[in-house]
Amino acid sequence: METQVKHGESLTRSAFLLAFDLRKEKLTQRGDLGYLLRAATLAELLLAGNLADESGKARALTAPAAEPGSLRAVVWEQISNPPPRSWRRWVQKHNGKAVRLVRDELAAARMINVERRRILLFPVERITPRKAYLSRRLAERVGQAIRGGQPVGLLDEDVRVLAALATAARLKTVVPSWREARLRRDRIQQLSAPVEPIATALRKSVDEARAAAASGGG
After folding, report:
1. Confidence of residue 213 (pLDDT cuts 50, 70, 90)
2. What angle do CA 130, 111, 9 make, to 5 degrees?
């Protein structure tokens, strides 16, 4: 059974919707989004018992019920054949393709609009939510989970995990500054417990990508 946050959306789709900056009416941090989406998919598989953590590596157990061509199906196929490898490898692998797959799923479900045009011969893509209130409510729930007010043990597991992953990805729609994340470090560690190796792999992947971009290597 799929892990769901609300309105029938998986963790992965919810992570995509959470990345919308509604004030600017656009996706934020698109360079990191693929890592977040793959991490969310890995979290779904781990929580559903399809994967297990084996000394910091993802071990395939049982095949999930996944729509052919979906990100879940793609990630499972990648992991199920080779021997166990690090979570970071699976967070980073084909992360650009992950964005396209989930984008197309959400567009087909009429959850987002995708507009394509050319500016000076260069293709430009604009993605906007069709139901902005869903992204807003999701950001509120995840933000509240991060800031506290309710014991972590009483939170819905999907909201808890999404909050952990959004924080690991430094998603500004729910964590405006790294200073705030540091102030809530203990809370975030508690949120991350069910998917700790994935959250750690996501955080390191995002940090590595940003460091490479800052030094001109990305």
Report:
1. confident
2. 135
Percent of the chain as helix, strand, coil, to the nearest 5: 55, 15, 30
On the CB side of 165, CA atoms within 13 Å amount to 31
Q: How far apart are CA 138 and CA 140, in angstroms?
A: 5
- Dihedral Cα 130, 98, 75, 6, nearest 10 deg: -20
Spacing of C-alpha 103 from chain mean position: 13
83 Cβ contact list (under 8 Å, min separation 6): none
The pTM (predicted TM-score) of the whole model is 0.90
3-state DSSP assignment of residue 115: strand
For residue 141, which amino acid is it? R
Q: How confident is the model at residue 137 (pLDDT cuts 50, 70, 90)?
A: very high
Cite the DSSP H helix spans in the chain: 11-18, 30-47, 71-80, 87-92, 95-108, 132-147, 157-168, 178-183, 185-192, 196-214
H or E, element range at 81? none
Length of the chain: 218
The vertex-44 CA angle with 90 and 144, nearest 5°, equals 110
Query: Residue for token digits 């994340």?
Result: 181
Q: Are 98 and 106 in contact (CB under 8 A)?
A: no
